[in-house]
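Minutes, project huddle
Topic: does the predicted pose make sense with guanine bound?
PN asked that the exact inputs be recorded in the minutes so nobody has to dig through chat later. Recorded below.
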Amino acid sequence: MAAKIIDGKQVAADMRAELKAQVADLKTQGVVPGLGVILVGDDPASRSYVTAKERACEEIGLHSDDNRLPADTSQEDLLALVQKMNKDPKINGILVQLPLPKHLDEDEVLLAISPDKDVDGFHPVSVGRMVVGQKSFLSCTPHGVIQLLLRSGVKIEGANVVIVGRSNIVGKPLANMLIQKSPLGNATVTVCHTRTKDMARYTREADIVIAAAGRPNTVTADMVKDGAVVIDVGVNRVEDATKKSGFRLVGDVDFDAIKEKASFITPVPGGVGPMTITMLLFNTVESARRAAGME
Ligand code: GUN
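Predicted holo structure (tokens), as shared on screen:
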């Protein structure tokens, strides 16, 4: 079977067009959703993520308050800016780009963000609400994976899902979203990780395999059954002398071999990646609606 390639760029473009229309409608009612963005330091990958987020805000008509702080910013100054944004009615969502420079306490900064503006969905209150099935902001990459599946016509309800990776940003929240009694969930979920014995035993049984391990070739063709759906969350740089940059991006799965066997597969880049920013925009629009008492 040759897999259908899930086009994340297209799904993201469709969702952004929907959000743009919603933002235009909100503006007619006097509501302008706003995102506060904080980048500390000048890590090139973080800088390009943040620039992409700011551009995406502009594209759909969101107000964005962009703050680029020097690498030696103190914990106190960063917390003060978060507190200022917590109180600012023009800001509905706060995004502190991670990772922060080593001298800063990331956990304390994430805790300082008001859960009402936690559009990244990283605050323990947001995660806890999600786990017990209460309304909360869903973190962007896992929610993006679920939207990709649903919008590609993949049935999640009742599916056997195996997630490879247990990070706080992807594996753990995604497993919890997929087991919820909700249209986004109702799956049977297994989480594999670095201490799992004989991982292939689990992945071979899966209707949907989601790789979020952060290591190339973690999932190979012999590890998936014919007709499985394979979602690749990995983004890894591997050396490539033929590229001007000296590297190329690959995911966590052996794409070329698995695409001959799976029913659906996401490419890297152009699969899950474009969905992450889209879900950030989605959460910011939802937060503005909630702040205006519309839901
Ligand atoms: N760094 C890498 N991905 C993310 C993300 O989704 N949100 C934030 N805040 N930082 C990140």
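Observations noted during the meeting:
- Residues 140-274 form a domain with the Rossmann fold fold (CATH 3.40.50.720).
- The chain has a mean pLDDT of 97.
No decisions taken; revisit at the next huddle.
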